[in-house]
Amino acid sequence: MSMSYGNTTVCVKSAVVVRSRRVPQWRAQSIAQQKSKSNQTAQILLSEFRQASATPLHRLRQVSDDMTAEMHAGLLSEGGSQQLKMLPTYVEHLPTGDEEGLFYAVDLGGTNFRVLRVQLGGKEKRIMNQEYQEVAIPPELMLGTSKELFDFIAKTLADFVATEGEGFDAHSGHIRELGFAFSFPVLQTSVKSGIVIHWTKGFKIDDAVGKDIVAAFEEAIGRKGDHIRVAALVNDTVGTLARGRFWNEDTMLGVILGTGTNACYVEQADAVSKWRDPPPKSGEMIINLEWGNFRSPHLPRTFADEEVDVESVNPGDQWFEKMVGGMYLGEIVRRVLAKIAQEAGLFGGSSSPKLFEPFSLSTPYVSKMHSDESAELTEVAKILEDVFEIQSTTFQERKIVHDVCDILAERGARLAAAGIVGILKKIGRDGSTTNGSQGLKNSNGKTVVAMDGGLYEHYAQFRSYMQAAIEEMLSETAAKSVVLELSKDGSGIGTALLAASHSQYGTVF
Ligand code: BGC
Fold first, then answer.
1. I need a labelling partner for 407 at 20 to 30 A (CA). Which of 148, 337, 398, 425 fits?
2. CA atoms of 12 and 8, how far apart (whole Å)
3. To test the ligand 1 pocket, which listed residue (86, 256, 289) has its Cβ within 8 A of the most ligand atoms?
4. 3-class SS at 371?
5. Which residue has the CA at smallest separation from atom 9 of ligand 1?
6. Cβ 260 vs Cβ 454: under 8 Å
7. Sorting pLDDT into bands at 50, 70 and 90, what band is 160?
8. What is the mean predicted confidence (pLDDT) over 209-215?
9. What is the secondary structure of 216-256 as a DSSP string?
10. Residues 38, 81, 146, 183: which is the catalytic one?
11. What is the per-residue burial (b if ≥16 Cβ within 10 Å, else e) of 336-348?
12. How many whole angstroms separate alpha carbon 478 and alpha carbon 297?
């Protein structure tokens, strides 16, 4: 049916020409009727999808309550929650701003990794200088061995260290120190060691699972003969929190909305019942939720989420991440459009092979199409042509595309907001006094949530849907006290800051 619709689309165009050659009127009418019928079917499918993805306030509250409940369970005992790992991070010192010296960071967590260096100048000068280099990870290394991956990273790092020049001042007699942002679930055994639990975001390096990731990295650094040492192993959320804290001491949460998604927060140490070691002197601990693996019966999962999950390298895992994260958003949009194409003849049915190719639509395109405010949705038209090679589209078709982007960005943003509210509730910062651990040191009225990741930084509609959902869920006073702040490059700079605050040489030289 869809293919034949494809042919008729072509006919519609030629109908203008042909009609002047006196095509029978009955034929033109039948084409028009067919087209309008397809349109109606597409609208029905769209509205069903809108309903299935809806996140009304009561549903958000259920999701955030489930998040809080799972947090409690995960803190109680190892494996207490099947979903949230609630990993203590061993980060004892968040940066204060006093840190000085030259520090490096390696940020591994998506399809690109980065090496960077920062020169810290203490309270007055803060970040005096910074440089970074971003490198795409060859796709085969994401599914290869840990030796191959780390040799590649160690080489890039060695080349980068070799370019250290003016504006960067390594302390003579000190070995250079590095923060390692490794943004996958890791069971930390100290601030600079940790065992890989499993991979996410399309990585699958089986030999690394169950092993110390810092040891693997340092061995590769050793093979390159570099004199640089890992001072801190951190999740990107923790780097983001640290970066936020460096500028604003009210920062209590770090959230990543990028390729993947996750959050960490500052918890009272005595709330972490599963902790067996002596409690940290500060009385506080940073807990990495690994909320990507959160699931709840209240999540509005659709056929597209199920397909994405089943066909991923980690089926059954990371449901929340697969509904929110940037790695999947474009793919979900594509699957919805493909279904409407197949069942209602959108874009002439199955005529575009690219539309049926997994991951052919990346999330930045979703953001661009969603931001198209032109009367004719010309940017949408251009992207449909560039990405799917769909040459000509009607306004109604483009509007459907725009709506699908809107529905899914709104859903992801509101779910992320519900997650944040769940954490705020756990620490008693959601405006309700009945729940959560009270008395965290830092309670001068504001709670800053340090945010990082491309979805948050570059997708304006996503950002504003999130903000609106937080305001909707919290009381007016609580909403005023919660500030979402972009902690730009938290996973890079924040990680270097944590290397500084955990330096073996102390923080001030
Ligand atoms: C990882 C987290 C990480 C998040 C954001 C998830 O897939 O499991 O550790 O923080 O992505 O990068």
1. 425
2. 6
3. 256
4. coil
5. 184
6. no
7. very high
8. 97
9. HHHHHHHHHT--EEEEEEE-HHHHHHHHHHHH-TTEEEEEE
10. 183
11. bbbbbbbbbbbbb
12. 27
What's phi and psi for 365, nearest 5 deg? Answer: -70, -35
Establish whether 183 is a catalytic residue: yes
Q: For residue 304, what pLDDT is reported?
A: 98
Helices (H), 371-494: 378-388, 395-426, 454-458, 460-473, 476-481
Helix and strand element counts for the chain (H, E): 17, 13
The CA distance from 105 to 502, in Å, is 13
How high is the pLDDT of residue 226?
A: 72
CB 194 within 8 A of CB 188: yes
How many other CB atoms are found less than 10 A from the CB of residue 136?
9
| Cβ atoms < 10 Å from Cβ of 281 | 9
Residue 36 half-sphere exposure, CB side, CA atoms within 13 Å?
5
The pLDDT tens digits for 163-195 are 999 999 888 888 999 999 999 999 999 999 999
Q: Which residue has the tokens 């067919």?
A: 34
| Strand extents, DSSP E, 22-172 | 87-88, 100-108, 112-121, 127-136
Told to judge if 61 belongs to the known catalytic residues of this protein, a careful annotator would answer no
pTM: 0.90
Task: Calculate how far, in angstroms, residue 256's C-alpha sits from the geometric centre of ligand 1.
Answer: 8
Q: What is the mean pLDDT of residues 292-316?
A: 97
| Nearest C-alpha neighbor of 469 from the set 69, 67, 56 | 56
**What percentage of the chain reaches a pLDDT higher than 70?**
91
Checking DSSP bridges between strand 193-196 and strand 261-268, what pairing results, if any?
unpaired
Ligand 1 center–CA 454 separation, angstroms: 13
Q: Is-contact 68 83, C-beta < 8 A? A: no
Nearest CA to ligand 1 atom 12: 260
- 346-380 per-position pLDDT tens digit: 998 657 899 999 999 999 999 999 999 999 999 99
pLDDT (tens digit, 9 = 90+) per residue, 12-23? Answer: 333 333 344 555
The dihedral over CA atoms of 481, 486, 487, 492, expressed in degrees to the nearest 10, equals: 160
- Mode of pairing for the β-strands spanning 228-234 and 284-288: unpaired
Distance 281 CA to ligand 1 centre (A): 28
- Residues 453/466, Cβ–Cβ less than 8 Å: no
Which of 236, 287, 452 to mutate to test ligand 1, by most ligand atoms within 8 A of the CB atom?
236
- pLDDT given for residue 395 in this prediction: 96
**Active site residue: 53, 66, 107, 114, which one?**
114
- Which residue type does 273 have? S
